[in-house]
Specification:
heterodimer, A: 305 residues, alpha/beta, four-stranded parallel sheet, 10 helices, 8 strands, 12% strand, globular, B: 479 residues, mainly beta, 16-stranded antiparallel barrel, 4 helices, disordered N terminus
């Protein structure tokens, strides 16, 4: 049959395939450090985690570079934020990976934002509003309650893909959840003085943090999401702050501190760098450190006297 | 030899589906018979009966709903800022909180759509009508040179893409040209479920050879492609055919691409054969050096056949001298790119260094001046070219880049036609300086200055002013 011979012709490159060496550990490809840290907490020795980006990189603007393609090809599970945060690079990685397991819709593709309630969902989609995300604000990791929700979902997912070790994953999840609940109780108590404090954001990246702590965002330094702060917009913020003074201006470790520093000099609003994700500051060594350090920095600058 | 064949049925499906497409056409041909009055009467009765039935069912459903509502105690409705409940400690799966489905609207499955809009001002000191690259014979329709002078609309490109089913996706890029003509830049289907690092493509696509070849014009760092691409690959090599790419299961990125095609475009031409007129392979590797540096390098070879390929050049008095080439061409490409950004964060500052070396070997026969003398003899030519460019991004939105390039026409063996065609050893060259401003990731305004020395004895100083905007679906670009 003609079709059969064509098939054989196509199959020739397949013959080049080497047997893939069987790795004992489940290979997890995490788009952002917080999900890498969470997968490590929930998987321990059972997983081999590789993180695509660092806390010093803007997760919106990553390139589908060769090393990432190679890692996506060999992954058993891809853990990303979703909600279009990685829209500029993850689709290309998945397409080029030739890895069926981690394509969208497969158990090996985990999007954390699918498991939390999203804020800032735009009522209208128009790029005149800047680089808006149709699915809502994707920076969900700044609220520990979201981490708890994602942990439960990710724990279940690990059990689903690696059923041989389901018991161990369940145990690790229960252990993590217990420690996390305790920590959240501690953080909530510590953060009480921050309730109602007025703040300025450099990028609209902290809406979940504010929702958790009751901080009040009175201005944003970027005129539109993803658009660099301009001199005229900074002046307008300065004028607005005269009416509604803010105690601090918050920026992430990966961002340029210049706009916040400018505001600090001209309006006396303290510029506060927060780690934003695991590894963003020396104190944010793991997920617990991330919130310990974030709170310490916010409290140092902005607690009500 | 053992064939590892994990997804054979997908491949078979992939090959069979053009046949399947043809099947429903037959069904369409059978038109329904006209209705007579009694048929209409009975249809009406049937519809009335159905309506009565549904109304009765709806009433009973309504009653059940009211009863159910009474049975459940009133729950407070969650407000937008209500705190979330503490998650359960056990591993009870969390249901995905997904947005409400887009509805049953017929357009919910429309492909992602994007449109590139671009316009250009071109100023040159030498009239581009007679543009040629001395020592390199190109088809008359080749897109070499700076194009038309003055204000013009550049290519507007419409892109459509979507998953077709769980096993494949489709992509089409339609180009609308300034002269009101339309061309199919790309139209291909691609597998998504072969696994094992394999991806196959069928249709019309940009070949994966070299570094720049597979990149769409709107992602170039300059207004135009390097001279080496213009002279040896007809600006950008695209073909109708089949591509298979395989990514090695190693931590080091290693990708092998194989292509078979019709070979319709320069350096090939339609041969009228049953078999493939183009074959290529590309091998690429790359990786990181610390957080701030990453790179990719590769070797590719393209082989095309040509039969009676019309080539030519402008002679000293602006007359077209048409020749015809029959034979084969092999183009080898070495490519390398290195990128730097502080801590890998390219938001404000980054640098990219990129270079390629192309070497073309043509062998066969050449007919000189087909409209006049028409003398045919053996033809052998080895020609090469390279470019090197650097792009520096500063202040976030600004980029400045510089490119330098040169071609070598070699010393072709024209046989009997040597007297008429022999060159002078002139080496075409060009230097380019570019500055662009990107108000957002969807828009760009660019100024480019170039000194083009592609024509022997003539120095062409060029200036370009260009805008490029993209609207619609958020594009994801390759490395």
């Amino acid at each position: 049959m003609k079709q059969k011979s064509l098939l054989l012709m196509l199959a020739a490159p397949l013959a080049l395939l080497l047997a893939v060496p069987a790795h004992a550990a489940l290979r997890v490809f995490a788009c952002e450090p917080e999900w890498g840290a969470l997968a490590q907490e929930l998987g321990g020795d059972l997983v081999d985690v590789s993180v695509a980006t660092s806390a010093l990189q803007d997760p919106h603007q990553i390139q589908a570079k060769p090393s990432l393609i190679a890692r996506a090809r060999n992954a058993d599970l891809v853990v990303c934020t979703g909600a279009e945060l990685e829209i500029g690079w993850l689709p290309i990685l998945l397409q080029q990976s030739g890895n069926t397991k981690v394509q969208e819709g497969q158990p090996g593709n985990f999007a954390a934002a699918n498991f939390v309630r999203k804020l800032d969902v735009p009522g209208q989609l128009d790029r005149a509003q800047g680089d808006v995300h149709a699915a809502g604000n994707p920076h969900i990791q700044t609220d520990p309650r979201n981490i708890a929700l994602v942990a439960t979902a990710l724990g279940a997912r690990l059990q689903q893909i690696d059923p041989a070790h389901a018991g161990q994953y369940a145990q690790r999840l229960a252990d993590f959840s217990q420690r996390w609940q305790q920590a959240m109780g501690r953080w909530t108590a510590q953060a009480a003085p921050l309730k109602g404090v007025a703040v300025v954001s450099q990028h609209k990246a902290f809406v979940y943090l504010y929702d958790w702590l009751g901080l009040k965002e009175v201005a944003v330094l970027e005129p539109k999401p993803g658009v660099e702060p301009t001199a005229s917009h900074l002046q307008a913020v300065l004028v607005a702050l005269k009416g509604t003074p803010a105690r601090m201006s918050i920026y992430s470790a990966y961002q340029d501190s210049k706009p916040s520093d400018w505001l600090s000099r001209n309006a006396g609003v303290a510029a506060v760098k927060i780690p934003f994700t695991v590894g963003g500051t020396d104190g944010a060594k793991d997920l617990f450190g991330l919130f310990d350090d974030t709170l310490a920095r916010l409290l140092a600058a902005g607690a009500k006297p | 030899m053992r064939f590892h064949f994990p997804a054979g049925h997908n491949l078979a499906f992939f090959l069979a589906f053009p046949l399947a497409l043809a099947a429903p056409l037959g069904a369409l041909a059978a038109a329904p018979a006209p209705l007579n009055p009694t048929d209409v009467q009975s249809l009406r009765q049937e519809i009335d009966a159905m309506r009565a039935d549904y109304e009765a069912r709806l009433k009973s459903l309504e009653q059940r709903l009211i009863a159910a509502e009474r049975a459940v105690p009133a729950t407070p409705t969650a407000t937008a800022i209500a705190p979330q409940p503490a998650p359960p400690l056990a591993a009870a799966p969390v249901p995905a909180v997904s947005p409400a489905p887009a509805g049953a609207a017929a357009n919910a499955f429309n492909p992602a759509m994007s449109l590139i809009l671009s316009g250009l001002y071109t100023g040159t000191t030498v009239d581009p009508v007679n543009y040629r690259i001395t020592g390199f014979q190109l088809p008359r329709a080749a897109e070499a040179g700076p194009g038309a002078r003055g204000l013009s609309l550049a290519e507007s490109e419409l892109g459509l893409s979507a998953n077709i089913d769980p096993w494949s996706r489709g992509v089409a890029n339609i180009s609308l040209h300034a002269d009101d003509s339309v061309s199919v830049e790309e139209a291909y289907v691609q597998t998504t479920a072969l696994g094992n690092g394999l991806t196959a493509k069928a249709g019309r696509f940009l070949s994966g050879i070299g570094y720049l070849n597979a990149q769409h014009a709107h992602t170039w760092d300059f207004v135009d492609n390097p001279l080496a691409y213009q002279a040896l690959l007809g600006t950008q090599y695209r073909d109708d055919g089949l591509q298979v790419r395989w990514l090695a299961p190693t931590d080091q990125y290693l990708e092998l691409g194989l292509e078979l095609g019709r070979g319709r475009n320069f350096p090939g031409s339609d041969t009228g054969k049953n078999g493939a007129g183009m074959a290529s392979f590309a091998l690429h590797t790359g990786g990181d050096m610390g957080d701030s540096h990453n790179w990719r390098a590769g070797l590719s070879v393209l082989r095309t056949d040509a039969t009676g390929q019309e080539l030519g050049f402008m002679d000293g008095t602006s007359n077209w001298v048409g020749n015809a080439f029959t034979g084969s061409t092999q183009v080898a490409i070495l490519d390398g790119v290195w990128k730097w950004a502080p801590n890998g964060n390219a938001t404000r500052t980054s640098f990219k260094l990129q270079g390629e070396y192309l070497r073309s070997r043509r062998s066969g026969s050449l007919s000189y001046d087909t409209a006049g003398a028409n003398t045919t003899d053996a033809y052998q030519a080895t020609q090469s070219g390279w470019y090197l460019q650097g792009v520096y991004q500063f202040l976030g939105n600004w980029r400045v880049s510089v490119r330098t390039e040169q071609l070598d026409a070699g010393s072709p063996d024209f046989g009997l036609n040597a007297a008429a065609l022999a060159g002078t050893g002139f080496k075409p060259a060009k230097d380019t300086l570019m500055l662009d401003y990107n108000p957002s990731e969807f828009s760009r305004i660019r100024l480019q200055l170039a000194q083009d020395r592609a024509r022997e004895g003539q120095v062409d100083n060029q200036v370009f002013l260009q805008y490029q905007m993209s609207l619609g679906a958020h594009g994801a670009h390759g490395y």
